[in-house]
Every structure is written in structure tokens, then in C-alpha cells.
Amino acid sequence: MRPEDWQALHHRLLPHAIAAADSAWCPHSEFPVGAALLTSDGEIIRGCNVENVSYGLTNCAERSALFSAISQGLAPGSFKALLVYAPRVPVISPCGACRQVLVELLDQQCPVICVGHDAAATRYWTVEQLLPGAFSEF
């Protein structure tokens, strides 16, 4: 993917991820995260982290967006890009559980853009780069 394509995705998805982070339920960590998932037909599906006092029951923004898309009938592998935003760190990175879900529900070359409060620290990855040698039945 060309750098200008990554930038266009970044510009389009970031406002949606910021809005999603504003909806985060994070009373325990006070660490809001938002995600914006671009579908194959150009729709944007938002997700935010939803915490629980039992942290293992917490759902990350990336998985919230993807699970919402799948529950709406969208097909795994049909998504164009994912942007993840966290305002309280210079840059965010998906956790291991999210990386494994990304491997199964996104195409391996799907762009994943990670953004924090430091624009210069923004990271651009593909799913394959986030989890090389991933466990997969595919």
C-alpha cells in the first residue's frame, strides 16, 4: 500500500475512533480506547473498550468493532482497514488477544493503524506484521 493510501485511511477513520473512545466504559483503568473499522462497502463501524471489575471480562475496542460487524452479518475477511486510537498514550498497539482475533477476522494484508496523542508515533501495520506466524486453521 502506498503511503498516501495509509494517510487517506488515517484521515478518514481517526474522527470515528476518537468518537468511539469518547464512548468507552473504563471506570477501572480510566484508559479509553476507540476503534474504527472500514467495511468493504465504505461503512464505518465503531468499537470501544468496555471494562468490567473482573478484568478478564473486559472487551477491547478492536474486538468490539469486529464483533459488532460480524453480528451485523458482515463476512470475515471483507474489511478494508482498522484504526485504533488511545488518547492517553503516545501510541497504542493491539493486545495479544486482539491480534489473534484480527488474524481470524481480517485479511492478512488488511491495514491496521495505531494512533495515540503523539501523531509522530503513529504506527502502520498489516495484520500479518502484527502477529507473524499466527495460530490459524486457514
Automatic annotation (TrEMBL):
Keywords: Hydrolase, Metal-binding, Zinc
SUPFAM superfamilies hit by this protein: Cytidine deaminase-like
CMP/dCMP-type deaminase domain span: 8-138
EC number(s) on file: 3.5.4.5
Gene3D superfamilies referenced in this protein's UniProt entry, alphabetically: Cytidine Deaminase, domain 2
Entry cofactors: Zn(2+)
Gene Ontology MF term list: cytidine deaminase activity
Reaction(s) the record says it catalyses: 2'-deoxycytidine + H2O + H(+) = 2'-deoxyuridine + NH4(+); cytidine + H2O + H(+) = uridine + NH4(+)
NCBIfam families documented for this protein: cyt_deam_tetra (TIGR01354), PRK05578.1 (NF004064)
Family stated for the protein in its record: Belongs to the cytidine and deoxycytidylate deaminase family.
Functional note: This enzyme scavenges exogenous and endogenous cytidine and 2'-deoxycytidine for UMP synthesis.
Name of this chain's protein: Cytidine deaminase
Organism: Pseudomonas ulcerans
